[in-house]
Specification:
The structure is a single chain. The protein is mainly alpha-helical. It has two domains: 175 residues, Up-down Bundle (Growth Hormone, Chain: A), CATH 1.20.1250.20; 199 residues, MFS general substrate transporter like domains (Growth Hormone, Chain: A). Helix 3 packs antiparallel against helix 4, helix 3 crosses helix 5 and helix 7 runs antiparallel to helix 13. The chain is globular and about 50 Å long. Keywords: Membrane, Transmembrane, Transmembrane helix, Transport. It holds the Pfam family MFS_1.
């Protein structure tokens, strides 16, 4: 078994492709609202344009997992790299009225890209390095969010739409050139229980009886709701309360996530067993962070920044831990489809954190809203504890 394969040259190339692919998004997230405002679009119109990306990506992920399973990660990646160049070029060549459709098309490519890369990494690496590969993939996808917003503002103020257009074309072409010969499997791994005739809906029916998927999805959904509420409302919370600085909070939270995913990637379990204590610990870290955030209005900025560390740490390791476990626990015949659905559940949590927690904050307060999120995390931790014994027994029998 190859030792250190997750950091080998072929895998590093995949992480570079991931970094380049996701580098366009932070720039778009800044420039599109600025262009919309400059051309007289309302906040509601801008919100619909930006939301089309997440909703499309979320809805297509289960289907994307099935397609990747059928045709293999490399073929799917090559097709969408070409589509990505065209879509990024359309941002500069189109009027603002077309941005809803373009954002939806970009969500389409992202759904397939994330599944192709993650499934390809899982199929390439030995079992004991799966968690490291997934952690490094997530790290590569997150790095653009650290430098992208600053780059976007500089581009917009320096050259406006022309600079934006040039950056999109450069990123699209660089991603295509780097990724076309990516060291991914041309076909997906198939198990002995493979049933090619199964439809996506037939595979999704397994969710009713698949305890591993239900427990992991519940934990990820609730954590994502809290995380989405933090990212969306932290600026308004700091403005209303007069405590802390939203930009510093988000930068610190992102830095913790980046450092944790790199430094602790080997600590994420990758043995196929269910580690309930590890998962509960991460959920409690997020819970404590959310409650500290709720109390920051009374105890000041240091408590708020401590919250960013706790939430960033928990979110950094929770997704790779759950994702890695599912790659072992799910049946081979429906693994890729259900992994796609698991990622969609994570996206759904962020959307719910935006849409559901906003009215809660309006009805009560931002502090109460974050307390409600912390309570939901405690409930998810209880679900993991109660289900942990059965999953652990199932893991032992599998071994």
């Amino acid at each position: 078994m190859n030792k250190g394969l997750s950091m080998s040259a072929p895998l590093l190339r995949l992480y570079i492709v991931t970094f380049l692919f996701f580098s366009a998004n932070p720039i778009i997230n800044i420039v599109v609202p600025l262009r919309g405002e400059a051309e007289g679009a309302s906040n509601a119109e801008i919100g619909v344009m930006m939301g089309a990306y997440t909703v499309t990506s979320m809805l297509l992920r289960p289907w994307a997992g099935s397609i990747v399973h059928r045709f293999g990660p490399l073929r799917v990646l090559r097709a969408l790299l070409f589509a990505n160049v065209v879509i990024l070029a359309l941002y500069a060549a189109s009027e603002l009225d077309w941005y809803f459709a373009i954002r939806a098309m970009q969500g389409f490519t992202t759904a397939f890209f994330s599944l192709a890369l993650q499934i390809g990494i899982v199929d390439t690496l030995p079992d004991n390095e799966r968690s490291q590969g997934i952690s490094l993939y997530l790290l590569a996808g997150m790095l653009p969010t650290v430098i992208g917003p600053i780059a976007a503002l500089s581009l917009w103020h320096w050259g406006g739409l022309n600079a934006f257009a040039a950056s999109m074309l450069i990123l699209g072409l660089a991603t295509a050139i780097t990724g076309y010969g990516a060291p991914l499997p041309s076909g997906s791994k198939k198990g002995a229980d493979e049933k090619p005739e199964e439809t996506v809906l037939a595979k999704l029916r397994q969710l009713v009886t698949n305890r591993a998927f239900l427990v992991c999805s519940t934990a990820m959904l609730v954590a994502s709701i809290g995380f989405g509420a933090v990212v969306t409302f932290i600026a308004l919370y700091t403005k209303q309360s007069g405590v802390g600085h939203a930009g510093l909070y988000l930068a610190l939270q992102a830095a913790v996530m980046v450092l944790a995913r790199f430094a602790l990637r080997k600590q994420v379990p990758s043995d196929g067993n269910w580690h309930a204590r590890f998962v509960v610990g991460l959920l409690l870290s997020i819970t404590v962070g959310l409650q500290l955030l709720a109390l920051a209005v009374y105890y000041g900025a240091p408590v708020m920044y401590a919250a960013s560390v706790m939430i960033g740490f928990g979110m950094a390791l929770l997704y790779p831990a759950l994702m890695t476990y599912l790659t072992f626990a799910l049946p081979a015949s429906s693994r890729n489809t259900l992994l796609g659905l698991f990622i969609a559940v994570s996206d759904l949590g962020v959307v719910l954190g935006n849409m559901v927690m906003g009215p809660v904050a309006d009805l009560l307060s931002y502090s109460s809203m974050y307390t409600a999120c912390a309570f939901l995390l405690l409930t998810a931790a209880a679900v993991v504890i109660l289900s942990g014994r059965r999953l652990a027994l199932r893991s032992d029998r599998g071994a």
